[in-house]
Specification:
There is one protein chain. It is built from 5 helices and 8 strands. With about 160 residues, it is an alpha/beta fold. It has 2 domains: about 80 residues, Ribosomal Protein L15, Chain: K, domain 2, CATH 3.100.10; about 70 residues, no CATH class. Strand 3 and strand 4 form a beta hairpin. Helix 3 runs antiparallel to helix 4. About 15% of the residues are buried.
Length: about 160
């Protein structure tokens, strides 16, 4: 199982002997072998990285995620050439037919609505409307069930 490292404070990252090294105020505070990593999440605006961090992380098929000040993911850096399975997945995504993409989107929205209903239920909030919507999601969500569920979810989740 690959590890996820979330960097949430100002620091400097570099690579030494295929280890991600973390320095805070000039002092080494940690290191992790790149081969153990799956994802590096950068959650602070004052993180400095060397180009070697990008290069060596991608060589080890480590994804790098950048986040906004609100900690929302804003970017994703992936190795496009290093792994045949990843390349095959990209090719499938790029060549997928429109009907397949709509069916996949339908599955994503159905699961999202099930998750929202589950959260509302866990907090004893009304979830039946969203549960019913989840069963009626059309291909490509042409009926806009996601938006209707979101309005209900946010109205009752606060």
């Amino acid at each position: 199982m690959k590890r996820t490292v979330a960097i949430q404070n100002p620091c400097r990252l570099n690579v030494e002997r295929d280890q991600l090294v973390i320095h805070k105020e000039g002092v080494k505070v940690g290191q992790v072998p790149l081969e153990d990593l799956g994802i590096i999440v950068l959650e602070h605006r004052q993180i400095t990285l060397t180009q070697a961090v990008f290069s060596r992380a991608l060589d080890h098929n480590v994804a790098i995620v950048t986040c906004s000040e609100n900690h929302y993911p804003t970017g994703l850096l992936l190795n496009l050439d290093g792994h045949h399975l990843q390349r095959r997945t990209f090719e499938y995504q790029l060549t997928a037919s429109l009907p397949l993409m709509k069916q996949l989107w339908q599955q994503v929205i159905r699961q999202k609505l099930r998750n929202q209903a589950s959260v509302l239920s866990a907090f004893s909030k009304p979830e039946k409307y969203i549960s019913e919507l989840a069963t009626k999601v059309k291909s490509g969500d042409s009926g806009n069930a996601e938006a209707m569920a979101a309005a209900h979810y946010w109205r009752h989740s606060v």
